[in-house]
């Protein structure tokens, strides 16, 4: 049996269609709370989460599920550390805001070099 790697690069992709539809793709099997959180936080009317993309890295439980050890949250079938799923959703939300022009990588004052 091949040993599990200590670190993985887990790709998250975001797609914005006509400023009205957002897709978040992510590997593995996410708990449903991630879809609900993504939909609630995404700044466009229609937000869809697509799991099992770019590889299968087993279950992605929520922090709360990992803390109480529910099915798929505290076993050998969970390779990701607690919080990995939440970070994926955070990343996708930021990317959609950037695509909409609502956020940039640098704050406006740093882009203007006001601190020189």
Overview of the molecule:
This protein is α/β, with parallel strands linked by helices and 116 residues long. It has one domain (13-111). Helices cover 31% and strands 16% of the residues. The chain has helices at 32-41, 63-68, 84-99, 108-111, and strands at residues 13-17, 21-25, 29-30, 46-50, 59-60. The strands form 2 sheets. A 3-stranded mixed sheet has the order 1-2-4, with helices on one face. Helix 1 runs parallel beside helix 3. The longest helix has 16 residues, at 84-99. The mean pLDDT is 88.
Provide the fold topology.
Layout: E1 13-17, E2 21-25, E3 29-30, H1 32-41, E4 46-50, E5 59-60, H2 63-68, H3 84-99, H4 108-111
Parallel strand pairs: 2-4, 3-5
Antiparallel strand pairs: 1-2
Describe this protein with a few key phrases.
about 120 residues; globular; alpha/beta; about 15% strand; 5 strands; two-stranded parallel ribbon; 4 helices; three-stranded mixed beta sheet
Order of helices and strands: EEEHEEHHH
Number of domains: 1
Uncertain runs are none
Q: Taking Cα atoms only, what radius of gyration do you get, to the nearest Å? A: 17 Å
* Tally of individual helices: 4
End-to-end distance: 56 Å
- Which structural class do you get from the secondary structure elements? alpha/beta
**What is the helix content?**
25-40%
Report the major sheet: 3 strands, mixed
Strand arrangement across the biggest beta sheet: 1-2-4
Please state roughly what percent of the residues sit in beta strands, choosing from under 5%, 5-15%, 15-25%, 25-35%, 35-45% or over 45%.
Answer: 15-25%
Number of strands: 5
Estimate the global geometry from the Cα principal axes: globular
Mean pLDDT: 88
């Amino acid at each position: 049996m091949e040993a599990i790697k200590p670190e993985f690069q887990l790709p998250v992709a975001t797609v914005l269609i006509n400023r009205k539809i957002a897709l978040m793709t992510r590997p593995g099997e996410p708990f449903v709370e991630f879809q609900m959180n993504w939909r609630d936080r995404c700044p466009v009317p229609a937000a869809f989460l697509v799991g099992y993309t770019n590889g299968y890295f087993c279950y992605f439980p929520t922090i709360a599920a990992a803390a109480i050890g529910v099915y798929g949250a505290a076993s050998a079938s969970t390779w990701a550390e607690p919080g990995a799923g939440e970070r994926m959703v955070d990343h996708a939300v930021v990317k959609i805001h950037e695509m909409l022009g609502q956020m940039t990588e640098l704050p406006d004052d740093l882009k203007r070099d006001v601190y020189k």
